[in-house]
Design brief:
The protein is mainly alpha-helical and 123 residues long. The chain has 3 helices and 2 strands; from the N terminus they run H-E-H-E-H. A two-stranded antiparallel ribbon has the order 1-2. The longest helix has 32 residues. The protein is elongated and about 60 Å long.
Length: 123
């Protein structure tokens, strides 16, 4: 699922929630393949690029150069079945990501409510 953004603040919030959504999907895939021989767990990174864009003041509201989440293989050691999914690590990451997603969702909802109130649309 991808959410749109209309200004810089929306862009940051929506980039974060889209990155977290991608991370949730990757974690679910990792967990689903915990017993698949030869499977390599993946991770998602978007925070560093988003932080740098904010610091530089170059966070875009879309188009070429817009930030996105990157997915890469993890460096978790490989187990006996040539699989490197660490179920404990993935479970912790799933809980943490769900919590972060809820916080971002709340921030987006609160911001929309405030903007609606400012333009006279009520809450």
């Amino acid at each position: 699922m991808s959410f749109a953004a209309s200004d810089g603040v929306d862009f940051v919030l929506h980039t974060a929630i889209n990155g977290l959504s991608t991370r949730q999907n990757v974690i679910a895939d990792n967990i689903a393949n915990v017993d698949t021989p030869g499977f390599r767990a993946r991770s998602v990174e978007f925070e560093s690029a988003l932080e740098k864009a904010i610091e530089r003041g170059t966070a875009r509201t879309g188009g070429p150069g817009a930030l996105g989440a990157t997915t890469e293989a993890t460096d978790t050691p490989v187990g006996a079945n040539d699989n490197n999914v660490d179920l404990r690590k993935e479970s912790i990451a799933a809980v943490q990501t769900q919590y972060q997603y809820q916080i971002m969702g709340r921030a987006i909802s609160d911001r929309q409510s405030r903007l609606s109130s400012m333009i006279g649309g009520g809450a």
